[in-house]
Amino acid sequence: MEDLERFIERFSGQNRAYGTTEVVGLREDGKKKVDSYVQHGEPTVDLWQKHLDGEEPSLGIIPITDDNTCRWGCIDIDDYPLDLKAVNSKIQEREFPLILCRSKSGGAHLFLFTTEYIPASLMRIKLSEMSASLGFASNEIFPKQSKILSERGDTGNFLNMPYFGGEDTTRYSLNKAGEVNSLTQFLDHSDEQQLTSEQLEKFKVIKNEGEVLKDGPPCLQFLVTQGFPQGTRNNGLFNLGIYAKLSNSDNWEAKLEEYNREFLSPPLGSSEVLTILKQLRTKEYNYKCNDQPICAHCNSGVCKTRKFGISSATAMPSFGSLTKQNSNPPVWFLDVESNRLEMSTEDLQNQTRFQRVCMETIDKMPPKMSERAWQGVIQNLLDNVTIIEVPKDASIEGQFQDLLEAFCTDRAQAQIKEEILLGKPFVEDNKIFFRLSDLEAYLQRHNFRQFTRPKITARLRDLGADHSGQNIKNRFVNLWSIPTFSTQTDPFDLPDFSQQDPI
Fold first, then answer.
1. Which residue of 7, 109, 389, 502 is 20 to 30 Å from 350, comparing CA positions?
2. Which domain holds residue 477?
3. How many CB atoms lie within 10 A of CB 42?
């Protein structure tokens, strides 16, 4: 049990929900097709054991807790094909405290562990910097949120755990030499690599960044210190030219030539430099954030804080993951600029409503895009949506049923049928009779306003209720009747205090 206990402790996280993933086939792109769900409840020891035994569905853990802290995080590299040993070598060269594990689809999960719970925001910042440094800036970071809306039923996103199948796993980790770790070796390795909160906060991702381009995009700052990859020098110098125009408008052309000599190896020829100069003279350009080499090292959150970075006023906010709470109506949680936003279906459909939510929650109004482009963004989010299955008693239908039962059983019941006119339910022949208006008033008093009258009547019929008219005190009264609710008949077992010693 020692390794099992260590494994559970190493990946401690959210304790009221977990994830399950089951492989159901292959997608057209060759990746595994899976069914993934967030389940309510604590991940039990039995679930962990089944995961290590290789019993599907495999287990996923949510790193962020309800107080917005975590003890581990992960860079999820979803690029295929991926040379795991080459990525591992990059990690060792940069002396990053990361452990590489192969993911279920053949990508990589780069884990960072801490000795204590730390703010999720700090974990995300450091992992984003490391991801940009490794050239995987576009890949997801876990925890996906700095804060979750736990009071609204939000759970955060889960990550599939390594070592599914124990020692016979394809989700193994690599040691510093690039060799496969056993489960025990992985746990020992993670013990060695974990950092304290203070150590992580002080950890410098780019060791020699100095003062070069400190007020510009972090992608360019990284590339001028590490070198531009072959085949990207033209685009690299073009982006350096944009920085030069923004930071040194009176002397930007001379600066561009200086950057060419200083940062490009070998420097571009005079004709190539002249072409770039002509392009930049003709119009105002923005950084080519979606093109290599800078897209691989993008850190937009930091870039927007830099004096000569991308403009936060005109840039579209970065979207993270989308989560759907399967209630009725559904509730959506979307990560926008690392903020967790709660939205309705209409908020996602309508850009104006989406802007309003952003203004009210993160004090920003994103620029509008074409309707077609917006639909593409939303569809892409829906293609990767995480589903939270809502417990019955937490759903709107469940809340209604609980209140209906309370209305029928918890209040003073009518002793005679005439007392129905006083708003009391009446029991006769294993049925409970009541007026709809009295039920509606009860629901209102308990702040339940999600159902209209037609919805209430439809739900009553779903629960086996009937409608009839009866004469009570010479008045025709519309009544609803529903089968009586089961009640506890056996007494509670109470402790016997008679044998206890007196205090």
1. 389
2. 393-483
3. 11
- Does the reported pTM lie above 0.85? no
Cα distance between residue 87 and residue 78, in whole Å: 12
Residues 45, 123: Cα–Cα separation, whole Å: 26
- In eight-state DSSP terms, residue 498 is T
**Does 359 share its domain with 404?**
no
The CATH number of the domain holding residue 29 is: 3.90.920
The answer, yes or no, to whether the previous bond of 491 is cis (omega within 30 of 0) is no
Torsion of the alpha carbons at 37, 40, 42 and 48, rounded to the nearest 10: -20
What is the edge-to-edge ordering of all strands in the sheet holding 386-388? Answer: 159-160, 58-61, 17-26, 32-40, 386-388, 319-325, 331-336, 339-343
Instruction: Read off the pLDDT of residues 439-488 as tens digits, 9 standing for 90 and up.
Output: 999 999 988 888 889 989 998 998 899 999 889 888 899 999 999 887 54
Are 106 and 253 part of one and the same domain? no
Our CA angle for 113, 92, 124, nearest 5°, is: 40
For 138, the 3-state DSSP assignment is coil
Cα distance between residue 470 and residue 479, in whole Å? 7
pLDDT > 60? residue 50:
yes
Torsion angle in degrees (nearest 10) through CA of 487, 488, 489, 490:
170
Q: Are residues 197 and 243 in the same domain?
A: no
How many CB atoms are located within 10 Å of the residue 439 CB? 19
- Select from 129, 99, 59, 121 the least CA-distant residue to 297: 129
189's tokens? 């390795």
- Shared domain for 173 and 63, answered yes or no, is yes
For residue 253, the surrounding DSSP H or E stretch is helix 252-263
Residues 83, 42 within the same domain: yes
Token pair in block for residue 413: 């019941």
Task: Specify the amino acid at residue 332.
Answer: W
CA–CA gap between residue 36 and residue 383 (Å, rounded): 12
Backbone angles phi, psi at 48, to 5 degrees: -65, -45
Name the DSSP class of 295. Answer: G
